[in-house]
């Protein structure tokens, strides 16, 4: 029988083989691999970068009309960072329900299309769960399918947001501008977005209304003709759609409610407009009735004289 090796000899052989083959890996801990560097050195080397994780939940109320539903689907196609959900019953407790849905979908904002009486469309734009939130009345709705415009841009591309100079005049317009930038701006390096800027979202204020337009950035690429970088004279804008107009009603401090930060003094509800139109139509009929009664009273107060020859031909 051969002699057994001593324990010290086996350790020396094992260490020699390790040195020849590879360097020993650092020990693994719960926080990663443990190397000889200190925590201060790791903090200096690591650079903290901000990552925009904005996600928008887009949903609507029940009994919404086809045109407003198509408008919602157009916005869903324009926003690659949005998530679509089932319809929500628009009752008094819709705020709590929508906040729960936003939390379940891991979103930070919400666009809620609320249709009333099958005619009036209200848009709730909210930052969840702490607010603020805005309620708009949507007018002058034109969808992509309805307009049949010639513009066409890449789906999922990032838009350029442009605002008119009126947004910097008053504080409530500044707040709305910041909300539009956060909700409609596509986050960088989003998995569903494409790293191209080929269309423009235009927000302009006219008569205390916000008008939305979507334009494609068109430039010639035929043959050898190419546009130099920064040459904006040859670029043109072609409208894509959709179109709509937002009339702000109230701005709330919370999500779908809370203290009122701003109330539009020039807002007139659609029900009041319809009632005034009915009163105007009813006024025409009332004028006719009054004219008939005046004619009868005039005939009674001014009777005609008796005709002497009225009974002459009866015999």
From TrEMBL:
Cited InterPro entries: Brix, BRX1
Q: Which family does it belong to?
A: Belongs to the BRX1 family.
- Specify where the region named Disordered lies, as residue ranges: 1-37
**Record domain Brix: where:** 54-257
What is this protein's name?
A: Ribosome biogenesis protein BRX1 homolog
Subcellular location(s) per record: Nucleus, Nucleolus
- In terms of superkingdom, the source organism counts as Eukaryota
Q: Which Gene3D superfamilies match?
A: Probable brix-domain ribosomal biogenesis protein
Bias (Basic and acidic residues): 17-27
GO molecular function terms here?
A: RNA binding; rRNA binding
**Alphabetically ordered keywords of this record:** Nucleus, Ribosome biogenesis
Major localization class:
nucleus
> Which Gene Ontology cellular component annotation is one that this UniProt entry carries?
nucleolus
- Which BP terms in the Gene Ontology apply to this protein? ribosomal large subunit assembly; rRNA processing
